[in-house]
Amino acid sequence: MGRSLSIGEASERVSRTCSLADDAGRLRYVSGARAKALERLGILRVRDLLLHVPHRYLDFTNTVKIARADVGQEVTVVGTVDKITLKRPRPRMQIVEMYVLDETGVIQATFFRQPWIAEQVHVGDTVALSGKVTFAYGFKQMKAPFYELLSSAEEGGSYARVLPVHPVGEGVTASWMRRIVSAALADVGDICDFLPAHLVARRGLMSYARALRNVHFPAGMPAKEPARRRLAYDELICLQLALLTRQRISLAGVSPTAHATTGPYVQRLYQALPFALTREQQQAATEILADMAAPQVMNRLLLGDVGTGKTAVAAVALAAVADTGTQAAVMAPTSVLARQYAEKLGPILDAAGISWTLITGSTPAAERAAAREAIGAGETCVTFGTTAILSDDVAFRHLSLVVIDEQHRFGVDQRAALRRKGAGADLLTMTATPIPRTLALSVYGDVACSRITERPVPGAGITTKAIAPENLDVAWTAIREAVDAGHQAYVVCPLVDDSDDGSELDDVPEGARSAATQLNSATSTYAKLAERIYPDLTIGLLHGRQSASEKDEVMAAFRAGEAQVLVSTTVIEVGVDVPNATVMLVLDADRFGLATLHQLRGRVGRGKDAGTVYLACAAKRGTPARTRLDALEATSDGFELAELDLKLRHEGEVLGYRQHGGVSLKVVDLAEDADLVEAAHEDARELALQDVELTLPEHQALALEVQDRFGAYFEEVERA
User: Does the predicted model carry a pTM greater than 0.70?
Assistant: First the structure.
């Protein structure tokens, strides 16, 4: 039996716990300047500092002498700086070379584009270097290692310890961050645990206070992982509870529509489809219809890889709306995709007797006015559109179903604005971006998921080939041969024009933007193809800075075969369907993530003829960029690629609001913590069933923690 806390001890612990909300500036060693530096790192309170966990550790319990640092191994060495120089071999290229000695030998450390190191480190300093050992020019070397200046106190003591390395920025060094965190733990570290005791016991977790100590200053390398996992679980269960709370708030006071799901329009829709639904499609349709018929608001995500037929499943839901005598809105991220929805589903809806209309930014004023009037009178059942349907002048008589395609491409306010047009409307979101189960549970913890993996029409297949830039002639020849055979081709570029710096490219792992070479732009590539490579062909140009009408005109010409080659940015990534296109060349393919490249290649091979995709990349084998391309060559399974993508670049901003200032999971590694994701999802659901508002005494501390971490999401929903 453990010793019970006295009233005085308990009071002190509660006081220390309350002090987590204090301003970080009250801590020891935090001057005004350091407080500003911490603020730039997002550390405003004591709590923020304690949750600012190390991103790596130097294992000084296992340092090696330089003579025993084997080439090819990741090691940590400690020695004295013998020489340090700053070199400028060419403009804008700065290299710092540092020579470090111990009693057994010398090692050279090389740092690129970090000239300030030559000012911070001096001859005679004691320094720790951690990195991979190579050998060249007669020296053992480390390229861009992690380095740590050791203080006089550290020099005089033992190195046999684990040294945490926290993320830092200008105004606060790694050593000062350690000192500040250590002082904070000494002053307020013995705090209460906000997790209910039964969850701590069920999941075999260490206490909150112990986890904070061990994650910052583990006694040995094995001690840090259990501490990190406790903090990761905390993050996950708070996120899951926040998502459930957000859902409860958003649905408070609404009157859902119980749709009719077995009426004549649904039956006629099935008959109008040009093919029978596959087993997975029918399962997804059944799940959606069951949600729509229920007396609760539907909130369902339909996951389906490229070509799995999500559109046909969505059509069944639209037919249920017609049977109910209400209205549906289908919002797509681009006018190209919205128009394509209308072209593909319009004839099927016509055959089933279901009225529909299309509203985009390029819809003529007279046509828009007529459509708006019919929608307001309830005469139009289904409205396809872009964000143009969010305009105040578009008012539905009774909107009971909202379908949002590629919902992560819309901002929070845009999604909320569409749902406000029909209070209590069922929501069906769809995405062709494959999402691993762990990420789906984290991002969409408050959403029911349906998944389709089988393609109704297998198609002729796609062959993916990675090529070096010097072998581009292979791709140019393949495009010429495809055009000569009556087919069409895409050429995809990362930039719109040469003045872009590539900073807006997404899905690119850290470090990929550091190359000094100029990336290919759509405008310059278009000019090169039209003037030099294919002067006899009609070349189209499509990018995000064109107006909606310009994009529609370009895509209409390409779809009609009037242009043989389309030069584009990633605006064609989702949904564009031109069955006659059989070849694609992606320039600077290393500047895109796996998800984007997989979506892009899904634009070819959609008809009876096989597709070929060339990924031009200068990256060498063994690099992260080439690993991604090798994976694309090896498999066409989007979900398998999504799992690999998660391992390569982790979760990113998991709430799906990257372009709108979303929140990242700071401790969780979704690629490694799948069991924690499942556990937190299960535990949060169970807690919500027992105590939906977490008002029981044993849950109140957890409720406060959820509010503290994710309260902004509640406010966001209330504003909406």
Answer: no
